[in-house]
Amino acid sequence: MSQETPTILPIQPILANSAIMEAVTRQSYPAATLYVVATPIGNVCDISLRALHLLSIADAVACEDTRNTAQLMTRYGLHKPLISAHQHNEREVADKIIARLQAGERIALVSDAGTPGVSDPGAKIVDAVKKAGLQVSPLPGASAAISALSASGLIHDQFYFVGFLPAKAGQRDTLLQSLINVPATMIFYEAPHRILESTQAMLNAFGAGRQVVFARELTKLFEEIHRCSLGEAQAWLNADSHREKGEYVVLIEGHTSDEDNDQLEAKRILAILLKECSVKQAALLAAQITGQKKNALYDLALELKNAEG
Ligand code: SAM
Known about the structure:
Bound molecules: S-adenosylmethionine
Helix content: 40-55%
C-alpha cells in the first residue's frame, strides 16, 4: 500500500478553489454542537473533507492523546487548542466541554485513531453532552471494525461487534463460550502480543472448522487480510514473526445452520481433553461424554491436534 504523502498537507490552499471544497464550506455546521470526528486508522489520507473543514473551524479539539492529535492536525496545516479527554477523565472533562458548548462554541471530539466511542474514549462525553440538552453530530469516517468487515469476504447479513476480549483467560473463555451460537459474523479487536493466545482460545471455543479472517495493519504499508479456518490459524500466525506485531481485527464466521451443534460441543470437549491426553484417549473419553461415535471423534481430535502444530 503506497503511503507517499507530503509531510504537511495544507488542505485549505489545495482545495480553496475547488467546487467540492466550496460545497463543503457552504454546508451548515451549527454552533453550540459537539462534533464526533473520525480520524484515520493508519493512512493519514483517510479523513473526510467535512472532517478537515470542521477541524479548521472548531474552537477546540477534545482528544485522547494531545501529541497524536497535534501531529495529525499539523500534517494538514491545522492548529487548534486541544483538550485532553482520555478514559480516566471523561466525566470531568465533559463538564468543561458542556460549559464551552453552552457558550456557543463548536467542539470537535476525536480519538487516537478511527471512530471515537468505538473501543475508545468518547461515549461518556457524548452521553453527558446529550443529557445537558446540547447537540451532538457525527462526522463519519474510518473504523477498523467496519473496514475489516468490508474486506473480509465473509458473507454477513448481521455482524456482532465484540471489541477487545478480557485480558484474564477465565473471563475471556467465558465470553467466547457465550458467543458459540451467535449466528452473526463476530468482530474482535486484539493486541499483537495476545494474538496467538486469543486465537488458540477461539479455536477451543468455536472449533477448527470455523472461518477466521485476520485483518492486520489495515491501510498501512504492511496491510494483510488473511482468511482461513480456525484450525489453520496458528500455522499462519507462526509462519512470519512479523505477525506478532501490528494491529489486528479478527473476524469469526457466525454459527451456521449446517454446523452441527453436537460437533461443536465435541470439538470443545476434545480441545480440553487434548491438553491432557493422547488423541486416542481424548476420542474415547469424548465418546463417553457426548455419546457420539468414537471413530468420528478420533478424526476430529486428529484434525485439532494437527492444527495446533
Ligand atoms: N476507535 C477505533 C476504531 O474505530 O476502529 C478503535 C480503537 S481501539 C483502541 C484500537 C484497536 O483497533 C487496535 O488494537 C486494533 O485491534 C484495531 N485497529 C486499529 N487500527 C487498526 C488497523 N489499522 N488495522 C487493524 N486493526 C486496527
